[in-house]
Specification:
This protein is mainly β and 126 residues long. Helix content is 0%, strand content 48%. It has strands at residues 4-7, 10-13, 18-24, 33-39, 45-52, 58-60, 68-73, 80-85, 94-101, 115-116, 120-125. The strands form two sheets. Strands 2, 4, 5, 6, 9, 10 and 11 form a seven-stranded mixed sheet that branches. It has a four-stranded antiparallel sheet with strand order 1-3-8-7, with no helix packed on it.
Length: 126
C-alpha cells in the first residue's frame, strides 16, 4: 500500500493563500488519479479537486472553481500532487486529505480511492 504524506496546511486570513502538497512514498507508475478531499467538523468528507495522471484532466468542486488549482509532478522520484488555494474563505476551513487510486474510477467520489493521507488542517480566520 502506498503511503501519502500531506504538507502545507496552516492558519491564514480571509483572502489569503496556501499551497498543499502530497507526496507518495514511492513512484507507482500505475497511478490513475490523485485528489484532495476535505472534512469540516461534524460534516462529511467532500470532494475538492482531482487530477488524472496520464491525461492531466482536472476536476473541481463548484465551491472552489476559480480559486483552487490542482497540479501533479511526475518529475520527482515520487508521485506528487499539489493544491494551490487562493482567495480563501472561512468555509474552506477543514482537514484536507490527499487520496490516490490505481483504478479507472469516478474520481469525484471518495469510495473510488484506495490510498489516503493522514490529513492536514487548514484554518481560515475572518
Amino acid at each position: 500500500q502506498v503511503q501519502l504524506v500531506e504538507s502545507g496546511g496552516g492558519l491564514v486570513q480571509v483572502g489569503g493563500s496556501l499551497r498543499l502538497s502530497c507526496a507518495a512514498s514511492e513512484r507507482t507508475f500505475s497511478t490513475y488519479a490523485m485528489a484532495w478531499f476535505r472534512q469540516a467538523p461534524g460534516k462529511e468528507r467532500d470532494f475538492v479537486a482531482a487530477i488524472t495522471w496520464r491525461g492531466g484532466w482536472t476536476y473541481y468542486a463548484d465551491s472552489v472553481k476559480g480559486r483552487f488549482t490542482i497540479s501533479r509532478d511526475n518529475a520527482k522520484n515520487t508521485d506528487t500532487v499539489n493544491l494551490q488555494m487562493d482567495s480563501l474563505k472561512p468555509e474552506d476551513t477543514a482537514v484536507y486529505y490527499c487520496a490516490a487510486t490505481k483504478f479507472n474510477t469516478n474520481v469525484l467520489r471518495s469510495t473510488g480511492y484506495n490510498d489516503w493521507g493522514q490529513g492536514t488542517q487548514v484554518t481560515v480566520s475572518s
